[in-house]
Specification:
The complex is a heterodimer of chains A (261) and B (168). Chain A is of the alpha+beta class. Helices cover 24% and strands 32% of the residues of chain A. Chain A has two domains: 25-150 and 240-250, Rod shape-determining protein MreC, domain 1 (Thrombin, subunit H, Beta Barrel), CATH 2.40.10; 154-231, Thrombin, subunit H, CATH 2.40.10. Chain A has a six-stranded antiparallel barrel. Chain A has a six-stranded antiparallel beta barrel with strand order 6-7-8-11-10-9. With 168 residues, chain B is mainly α. Chain B has one domain. The chains are: A alpha+beta (261), B mainly alpha (168).
């Protein structure tokens, strides 16, 4: 009996370590989603003030972009919203009903699911920066693989130049810091520089802000930098997020992986 | 007997809800969370069916896993401590356990703490080992085990004092 159950649970653990396979045990099902939603309905009242301020701040930014639109097109194309998306991206809002950041594999649960047209592999951001990638959906809820998860890999680059690397988390650093690896040693890396998403994945559009460089050092091999990135987002205090869908991703994937005949 | 099982069911549900809604969100000093839901296993009545006990422990762990997206980590740890509970009981309580007359609320406080400490340390170690799943991070595992265990032991002791019915 003991051995049987122990092996079952080990199997579930190992299964959860492989990306996209942990279908069964997750917080995006009907029961857990429902409980989390009603609990967050109560706890939401406690940080209404903070969230309101965030929304006002974002409104201010968007409004100033609308008013300045006519005289500075160039500054807008490099920034996160409206024009640079060019209609290729569909954006939906959602609310975080469960947020973890204490373990080494963290997930969030959102209150939107398949009935709102949410699919796997859509990007999730806030007005300040990226949050993660949707990795599991049910009818009414979806689960997000947070950037604070040792399984997460996100394509990112320096804002100042086009050197790309991949954004990971080592599971040890506090919830404010992630690591950017595989940046070539010829890249001009400076403390305080901004890191943004690269345009190489079909998940995030290019130029979504991630964070600033806190410190950096050369790898053991001496070829690449490992950069400590301080996140713009406060991952411990998330409420309203946006889900980004790249409408062209099917076409790009089809082009990149042609079917063998 | 009947009141026993009703009592256990209520304890099962309440501990899971309290764990996932409150204790999973404490995040003391950034990352330290207590896991007092295993009080269900620690305080499960002793003279009961062993198979049922191990199965219930598995379900308890599995529910916590489903809520916290952790695969089968909690389930594995819970099954293990349910399995090794009898020897630990014998070690912590000695003769009293041999006579099968033990009731948790009239055991000595010191013995109870020893018993809690052993099982909680084992549970947390297995849990973090499986969660991090990387032997090269053994220091991180031990560190997390230590801090979380201290937190859990204090909470378990407090809860068991608060809810022990001492009427004689």
């Amino acid at each position: 009996m003991f051995l049987l159950l122990f092996i079952i649970s080990l199997g579930l653990t190992i299964q959860s370590h492989s990306y996209h396979r942990s279908k069964f045990i997750n917080s995006a099902n009907f029961l857990t989603g429902g409980i989390y939603e009603s609990a967050s309905g109560i706890s939401d009242y406690f940080d209404l003030n903070d969230q309101n301020e965030l929304l006002v701040e974002e409104n201010r930014k968007l409004r100033s972009q609308i008013f300045n639109f006519s005289d500075s097109i160039s500054s807008i194309t490099s920034s996160i919203d409206s024009v640079s998306y060019n209609g290729r991206y569909r954006i939906q809002s959602a609310k975080v009903i469960n947020n973890n950041y204490a373990s080494s594999k963290n997930y969030l649960t959102l209150n939107k699911g398949e009935k709102d047209d949410i699919k796997e592999d859509l990007g999730v951001i806030t007005s300040r920066g990226i949050v993660g990638i949707i990795d599991n959906t049910s009818n009414g809820y979806s689960r997000v693989l947070s950037i604070l998860n040792t399984k997460s890999r996100i394509n990112a680059q320096l804002k100042a130049s086009n050197h790309i690397g991949s954004l990971k988390w080592d599971g040890k650093s506090p919830a404010t810091t992630v690591q950017l690896t595989d940046i070539s040693k010829f890249a001009p890396v400076k403390d305080g520089d901004t890191i943004i998403t690269g345009g190489q994945s079909t998940i995030f559009p290019k130029g979504v802000p991630i964070g600033t460089i806190e410190s950096f050092d050369l790898d053991i091999s001496g070829d690449t930098y490992t950069i400590q990135v301080k996140l713009f987002n406060d991952m411990t205090n998330l409420s309203h997020v946006y889900i980004i869908e790249n409408l062209d991703s099917e076409e790009i994937k089809l082009l990149e992986n042609p079917v063998d005949e | 007997m009947n009141s026993f099982s009703i009592n256990s069911i209520i304890r099962f549900l309440v501990l899971i809800l309290v764990q996932v809604l409150i204790f999973n969100n404490i995040n003391f000093m950034g990352t330290i969370n207590p896991y007092p839901y295993i009080l269900f296993i620690l305080l499960f009545p002793i003279n009961n069916n062993r198979t049922l006990f191990i199965f219930l422990s598995f379900m308890l762990g599995l529910f916590v896993d489903i809520f916290s997206n952790s695969g089968g980590v909690h389930a594995a740890a819970c099954v293990t401590i349910a399995f090794i509970r009898p020897p630990v009981l014998k070690f912590a309580f000695g003769m009293v356990y041999e006579h099968q007359t033990i009731k948790f609320h009239n055991t000595e406080f010191g013995n109870r703490i020893i018993y809690f400490t052993i099982l909680i340390l084992i549970h947390h170690f297995i849990m973090f080992l499986l969660e991090i799943f990387n032997i090269s991070n053994i220091l991180l595992i031990l560190q997390k085990t230590l801090f979380s265990s201290i937190f859990t032991i204090i909470l378990c002791a407090l809860i068991s004092i608060l809810f022990s019915n001492k009427q004689r």
